[in-house]
Input
Amino acid sequence: MGIIQNTLEQGLIYAIMELGVLITYSILDFPDLSVDGTFPLGAAVSALMITRGQSPALALLCAMAAGALAGGLTGLIHVKLKVRDLFSGIIMMTALYAVNMHVAAGSLRMGKANVPFFSTKKVQYATIFENNALTDLFPAWLEPYSVLLISLLLVILVKVLLDLFLKTRAGYLLRAVGDNETVVTSLARDKGSVKIMGLMISGALVALSGAVLCQQQHTFEVSMGTGAIAMALASVIIGTNLFR
Output
């Protein structure tokens, strides 16, 4: 039972990343390889803020902002510098590796790229899964399932907000730029700006997933994003084929 529960927890956390990759892969038709760098970026920002005593919810928002910035830079490299989509993702992924190393080893002054922040008797780091408000909210019999329930609520919230956005005018433009860029241009809209917006949303969701995983595991490793894009693409392909 413990293995099944742990699998569900991990799957729900990674599902947020898959929603971000769904935007680039299925909607924008953009092979964004920067996911391998954006995912640990969100974890690094979350670890940085939590170890500095900041709110875990604020850490998630800052991680999303960092991910959106990384996605926007990927879009700028592709749109403004005319670099091919595949190469722009690789460039940003390589750059983010150095950034993540700096955040972990430099800003945290740990002297290494592995930042564990397990709660101890001396220091009690609050996370979205372990805090005083959560202790009062869940009854004793639900506490073993708190991580699973919070992860499920986060996924539902992200999915509902994403669906609502895709039904707006900006959301329809985002869909159109992946299917037929000429339609967007005929509507007097800059297709490049729409692509950048989509990449920013995708980066924010990927970074959010990394931040949530960081708080759930109480640690950050600069290599935790290795293979993230392959796993996310596999999940998107399986999901879109099974649930058409």
Notes: The beta strands are 114-116, 219-221. Residues 191-217 form the longest helix (27 residues).
